[in-house]
Fold this protein.
Amino acid sequence: MPGKEPADEAQRIPVLLAVSDPETATWLRAALAEHALVDVIGEARDGLEAAQMAREWRPMACVVHAELPGMDGYQTCELISLAAPEVATVILDGEPSAFLMETAMRVGARGCVSPHADSRALLEILADIAAIDERRHSVEFARVTDPTQAPVVVGVSAAKGGVGKTSIAVNLASVFAQRMPNETVLVDCYAQYADDAVALGLPHRHSILDLAAHGPIEDGDLEQYLVKHSSGLWLLPGATEPVAREQMITPEFVARLLTVLRRRFRVTVFDLPPIITPASAHIMTRCGHFLVICNLMELTTLRDTSVLLQAVSGKWTSKDRIRVIANRVTPKNRYAVEELEQVLGHSVAYRIPDGGDLPVAALNAGVPFVISNPEAPVSASVKALADLLMPPKSGPSAPRAHKPAESVLEKLRRRGKVGGGSPKRLT
């Protein structure tokens, strides 16, 4: 029998045992003691004690004998799942059957093993548990659990053209890119009359229509269709087709596109046409922030914006995700912000002042005004809007190291402790 080998502390598997039968306890301790990666940190004699110890000590796994006094093993696993959900449980019961497996699954156990059987089945399940636990150190886990790393999707729309929507989308995306270079992408969803590439001064060969025609999108397909701005902003250009081909931009296409973009980028900004299509409606359902740009110059703009809000609120996005942005605000506006709110039945989240000739000059020059004139009031306003959508971090946070998910499992297999059989497991 091989002796213990030194083990990396970060890769050890802390295990709590819950067993009252002396014979089963002896077998279990012997089965686990020889493996360096498995560290028995304590033993409980009944179910209540096991749940208390699991909550206090937070082991990676708890091996629970079905025959415990007072509270049986299945009830114990259920209690542990409620009290310490991050602790995985494994049931020790008679020869595993479909009924026992189903019962174990219902109480949150990861597997079911027969006591006094070959220990390889138990080690295989513990190795799987350790491999899953290592996912806590992955980028994907951080993006799900850490608000400072979670991907953010922002949709920018309007009820009609001419209100400065594209200018806001381009400059807002540029602000995010300055703060998070190479982690921000702007998607121009226009199938004709696209302007984002012009506003950024970016020549390009491909458009969103070319990507749509590519077929199923995989992670490696995206880069050849993107162009990069000097600010660190990536752009998926829209199309300038003489005949509209919006039907190529389907809900299925944008769903897959969103999946790939969320894995690749921290921030995705969609510049949406002022018309609701099935594809744009799908994008709305996925936006953490849906910006509706409006100005205060024309009654038709107020009316059309009101119609847009009534159409999308509660159907494709919730009211609390909608941010009405009053653009080009000046004392000379025909209507006041308060009148806009009264007409819309929705509060105005932010006001962007009139930038005079600056936004048009920046557009004609192909340089976002937040870059060419960062100190201008309109630039400061867009930066403050970015703060509202994504509050700045209090300090830099490096991504956590990612360890291969199979490291513990492979070590155990390499040492011959687990094989290629089919143990009864639920992981």
Summary: Confidence is low (pLDDT under 50) at residues 1-7, 394-409, 417-427. Residues 119-133 form the longest helix (15 residues). Residues 14 and 39 are 5 Å apart (CA to CA). The two ends are 29 Å apart (CA to CA).
